[in-house]
Amino acid sequence: LLFIMSDCPYGKLGVEALKGVVDNFGSAITYDVHYIASETAAGFDSLHGQYEVDEDIVQLCVKKHSSKQWLDYLYCRSTKGIKGKDWKECGNEAKVDVTAVTGCFEGTEGKALLKEDIKIANGLGIGSSPTWIANNKYQFGGIDAETVKGELCKYNDLEGCDKTLSTTSTG
Predict the structure, then answer these.
(1) Cis amide bond preceding 130, omega within 30
(2) Which of 112, 13, 25 lies closest to 64, judged by CA?
(3) Is residue 150 packed enough to be buried (19+ CB in 10 Å), middle (13-18) or exposed (0-12)?
(4) Packing angle between helix 9-25 and helix 70-80, nearest 10 degrees?
(5) 36-52: per-residue pLDDT in tens?
(6) Sign (positive/negative) of CA torsion 99, 114, 14, 137?
């Protein structure tokens, strides 16, 4: 599990690391990304502002409506930027169903997805982006693929643990 704020500089590096780890281990691992935010009387609040809340919602809508393209979308947004950039550019690049995601984001569905998703981080008391949890119990930090791989391999015997992954990031 990876917990992030979608426009946190370190959270975006966490997404880049996730992509490297998934590329290395393939279907031998399962993963998920959850968001760090809070619900308010007026909607939601996130450290970097409303545009970050909006991106959290878009990412959850992509996860629901274009799940096979979800990681590619997250990676695109993490490397190309979020603030002041139209999400549809990465949406089209990753081949997500932009129409379905737009409907999800503009309607009530996306807000309901975020409302449920943030309960996970809040319930675990996670407020730092990125925070990783391996095997649903081992919490750690990491912003490069090699560090994350090392932590996963501490607790799991996986093919690919002997490979060296990137220790740097584009950030």
Answers:
(1) yes
(2) 112
(3) middle
(4) 140
(5) 999 999 899 999 999 99
(6) negative
- The three-class DSSP label of residue 140 is strand
Determine if the pTM surpasses 0.90.
yes
* Alpha-carbon gap, residue 3 to 31, rounded angstroms: 11
Closest C-alpha among 126, 97, 108 to residue 57: 108
Separation between Cα atoms, residue 164 and residue 149, nearest integer Å: 9
Tell which residue, 19, 54, 34, 53, has the closest CA to residue 126. Answer: 34
pLDDT at residue 170, as a whole number: 55
Q: Rounded to the nearest 10 degrees, what angle do helices 109-124 and 98-106 cross at?
A: 80
Residue in the structure block whose two tokens are 């609040």: 45
Task: Report residue 137 as tokens.
Answer: 């119990």
